[in-house]
C-alpha cells in the first residue's frame, strides 16, 4: 500500500459526506425521533462523557485538543468515516439481533445505490487491465422457510487491488467494482469479480490523527460489501471476509463476524479462486 491512499483523504471524506447528504441512509430518520427518546439518549451520552472527564481528571489542554479535533473532523468531511468505523457496528448489532436469517455487518461510508444491472450471471464492471486475482462467486438467495427468492437483488461493491473505491478515490471509472445482480428463478446468481485488497482508512485526516495519537492501526481486512433485497423481506447489508487476512482479528471497524468468513477454493483454471456463499433473508 502506497502513500497515494493517504493523499486522497480529504477528497474521499468530502465525497462520503456529499454522498450521504444526497442519498440519505435508510437509518437517517432524525425528524421522527420523539422528544423523550432524544432526551434519554442525549442525557446518557453526555453523562458518559462527564463520567470519563471526572474519572480521568481531563484537563483544559485535553478539552481544547478535543474541541480542535472535532472541528477538524467536519472540515475534513470525515464524519461519515468516523461514525461508520467506530459507532455503526453497535447500531447494526441492535438492528439485526432479532434475525433468524443471514448475519449482516455495517454498510460503511462507500455504498452508492443504482449500480449497473448485470443479470443473474455476469462480471462486475471493471477496467480491461483490472489488477488482482479473479474471483467467481456462486450463491443462492432463499427465505427463512427455505423457498428460493427469484428476482432477489444482490448489490456488490468493494475496493480494488490497491484498496481504493470508485467514486471516492480519484482516477477510477465511475462504477468500477460496483454492480447489481438479479437472482434467477431458483434464487441463484454467479458473479465474476476481482479479489479486493486489505483497506487502510485515510491516515492524513482527522481519523488518522486519532489513530496515530492513540497508537492504533488504520486497517480493515479485505472485504466484499453486499446488500441483498427481495420484496416482503428485510434488507440484508453484509460484508464477507477472506480467511488468513492479518486484520480479521483486529478490524479497525469491528465489523468481522465468524459467519461472514468465506472459504475460497482455487479455480479449475488456476488463475484465481471460487467462492460459494448463500443468503437467507428474514420476512419483513
Ligand atoms: C471501508 O471500506 C469500510 O468498509 C468501512 C466500514 C469503513 C471505512 C472504509
Ligand atoms: Fe469497505
UniProtKB/TrEMBL annotation:
The Catechol dioxygenase N-terminal domain extends over 36-102
- Give this protein's Gene Ontology molecular function annotations: catechol 1,2-dioxygenase activity
Q: Which domain of life is it from?
A: Bacteria
Database matches in Pfam families: Dioxygenase_C, Dioxygenase_N
Where do Low complexity bias regions lie? Answer: 1-17
InterPro entries linked to this entry: 1_2-CTD_multi_dom, Catechol_dOase_N, Cchol_dOase_actb, Intradiol_dOase_C, Intradiol_dOase_core, Intradiol_RC_Dioxygenase
Q: Which residues form the Intradiol ring-cleavage dioxygenases domain?
A: 106-282
Q: Which cofactor does it need?
A: Fe(3+)
* Entry's EC annotation: 1.13.11.1
Q: Which UniProt keywords apply?
A: Dioxygenase, Iron, Metal-binding, Oxidoreductase
Region Disordered: what ranges? 1-25
Q: Provide the family line.
A: Belongs to the intradiol ring-cleavage dioxygenase family.
What's the protein here called?
Answer: Catechol 1,2-dioxygenase
Q: Native species of this protein?
A: Nocardioides jiangsuensis
Q: What phylogenetic lineage does the species belong to?
A: Bacteria, Bacillati, Actinomycetota, Actinomycetes, Propionibacteriales
* The gene coding this protein: catA
Amino acid at each position: 500500500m502506497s502513500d497515494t491512499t493517504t493523499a486522497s483523504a480529504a477528497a474521499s471524506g468530502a465525497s462520503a459526506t456529499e454522498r450521504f447528504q444526497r442519498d440519505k441512509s435508510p437509518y437517517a430518520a432524525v425528524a421522527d425521533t420523539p422528544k423523550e427518546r432524544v432526551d434519554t439518549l442525549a442525557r446518557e451520552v453526555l453523562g458518559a462523557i462527564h463520567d470519563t472527564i471526572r474519572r480521568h481528571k481531563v484537563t483544559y489542554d485535553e478539552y481544547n485538543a478535543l474541541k480542535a479535533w472535532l472541528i477538524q473532523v467536519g472540515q475534513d468531511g470525515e464524519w461519515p468515516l468516523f461514525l461508520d468505523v467506530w459507532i455503526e457496528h453497535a447500531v447494526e448489532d441492535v438492528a439485526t439481533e432479532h434475525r433468524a436469517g443471514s448475519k449482516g455487518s455495517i454498510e460503511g461510508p462507500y455504498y452508492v445505490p443504482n449500480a449497473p444491472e448485470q443479470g443473474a450471471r455476469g462480471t462486475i464492471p471493471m477496467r480491461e487491465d483490472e489488477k488482482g486475482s479473479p474471483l467467481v462467486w456462486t450463491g443462492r438467495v432463499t427465505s427463512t422457510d427455505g423457498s428460493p427468492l427469484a428476482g432477489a437483488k444482490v448489490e456488490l461493491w468493494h475496493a480494488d487491488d490497491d484498496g481504493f473505491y470508485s467514486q471516492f478515490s480519484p482516477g477510477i471509472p465511475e462504477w468500477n467494482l460496483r454492480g447489481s445482480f438479479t437472482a434467477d428463478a431458483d434464487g441463484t446468481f454467479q458473479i465474476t469479480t476481482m479479489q479486493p485488497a486489505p483497506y487502510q482508512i485515510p491516515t492524513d485526516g482527522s481519523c488518522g490523527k486519532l489513530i496515530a495519537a492513540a497508537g492504533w492501526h488504520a486497517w480493515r481486512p479485505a472485504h466484499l460489501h453486499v446488500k441483498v433485497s427481495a420484496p416482503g423481506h428485510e434488507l440484508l447489508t453484509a460484508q464477507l471476509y477472506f480467511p488468513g487476512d492479518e486484520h480479521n482479528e483486529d478490524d479497525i471497524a469491528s465489523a468481522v463476524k465468524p459467519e461472514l468468513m468465506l472459504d475460497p477454493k482455487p479455480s479449475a483454471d488456476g488463475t484465481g479462486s471460487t467462492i460459494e456463499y448463500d443468503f437467507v433473508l428474514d420476512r419483513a
